[in-house]
Write a structure and sequence with these properties.
Layout lengths: L3 E4 L4 E4 L4 H29 L5 H45 L7 H5 L19 H30 L2 H7 L14 E4 L2 E4 L6 E4 L2 E4 L5 E3 L4 E9 L4 E9 L2 E11 L6 E2 L4 E5 L9 E8 L2 E3 L11 H20 L9
Antiparallel strand pairs: 1-2, 3-6, 4-5, 6-13, 7-12, 8-9, 8-11, 9-10, 10-12, 10-13, 13-14
Helix pairs in contact: 2-4
């Protein structure tokens, strides 16, 4: 806006230029006024009306959307974790148990992350560290799922030999079940020690009979160890049947197998004796499952017909003889 003043000498109106100082003062006043109006607007908008600034409102809306996404993700993770725990219980209690496999240790299943804090870059982003905690849950579940996957692979591999399981599990008496030739002198469980009379756990069954009576493998197995303990089992054979099962035959008079040898159910492994710490001639027979001695009476039936038992033994002898008499042949190429 121009300002005109009357020149008394020329009696004409002339344009009056404002001084630089005046211009600066007016500009400063305009700036101060603008700032004051802006501050008044912000105070009225936030304090009086209680509203957020547009940018603040936008950021809050974005945060609310991400929080909602995290809540949905954590809800799904809760469901996945519950399903994974159910699979782990079924795996240990059913699948691995059926095939005589040891349970996976809890420390291995937990699949801890450990090491350097790889999530340090997420610290301080939120007061409750929701994003960091979710990232940790995802990684931990991924690792647990991997462990479970490897376990199922192992079970699947073992299951391919499930057909052999029935023949491997100890399921018959270790001697011909002829009541006229043996006596069940000591069952599984606590008893009075025959030497000290103290109450002591008896970890197998004792079948008293004459020295020299044959002892047979109760299931397909590999001879794990053959030992002699003068103050204990005497001559003993330990068979590994796989699927978590082992059997021990103790106080033998003689042994008919060697370590590492594969035997079938019904193969003769030795003779009844009185070696080691024994009060009389008998066979001490143990069944070991997953490292724990269990009651052998649950794995054989002494009422089994002796004719049926002897027929099985004869069949195994014939099969063994057929293998021994079989001769390899070669084809000559021209």
């Amino acid at each position: 806006m121009r300002k005109y003043i009357l020149n008394p000498e020329t009696l004409m109106y002339e344009i009056k230029d404002a001084s630089l100082k005046s211009k600066l003062f007016k500009g400063l006043m305009l700036l101060v006024g603008s700032i004051a109006l802006a501050v008044l607007y912000l105070w009225f908008f936030t304090s009086v009306l209680g509203l957020d600034l547009p940018k603040t409102a936008f950021l809050k809306a974005e945060k609310a959307r991400w929080d909602a996404k995290l809540d949905v993700l954590n809800t799904r993770l809760d469901r996945y974790e519950s399903n994974l725990e159910a699979l782990q219980i079924r795996d240990d209690d059913i699948y691995r148990s059926i095939f005589g496999m040891n349970e996976i240790p809890a420390a291995v299943r937990a699949a801890g992350i450990g090491g350097v804090d790889k999530y340090a870059y997420l610290d301080g982003l939120e007061p409750d560290n929701a994003l960091k905690n979710t990232a940790i849950r995802i990684d931990r579940l991924t690792r647990r799922a991997y462990v479970q996957s490897k376990s199922f692979d192992e079970v699947a591999s073992i299951s391919k030999t499930a057909g052999d399981m029935a023949s491997c599990i100890p399921a018959i008496p270790p001697i011909v079940p002829d009541p006229s030739k043996y006596t069940l002198s000591s069952p599984f469980g606590y008893r009075s020690d025959p030497f000290t009379t103290d109450a002591k756990m008896h970890t197998g069954v004792d079948l008293a009979m004459k020295v020299g009576n044959p002892v047979y493998a109760t299931g397909d197995a590999v001879v794990e160890t053959i030992e002699f303990d003068f103050f204990g089992y005497g001559n003993s054979v330990l068979l590994d049947h796989g699927f978590g099962y082992k059997t021990r035959y103790a106080h033998l008079n003689s042994v008919s197998v060697i370590e590492g040898m594969k035997v079938k159910r019904g193969d003769r492994i030795g003779d009844v004796g009185q070696s080691g710490r024994a009060s009389g001639p008998h066979l001490h027979y143990e069944v070991i499952y997953k490292g724990e001695r269990v009651n052998p009476a649950n794995y054989f039936d002494l009422s089994m017909s002796k004719q049926e038992y002897q027929a099985m033994v004869e069949k195994r002898q014939n099969e063994s003889e057929a293998v021994l008499t079989r001769r390899p042949f070669s084809v000559t190429r021209r």
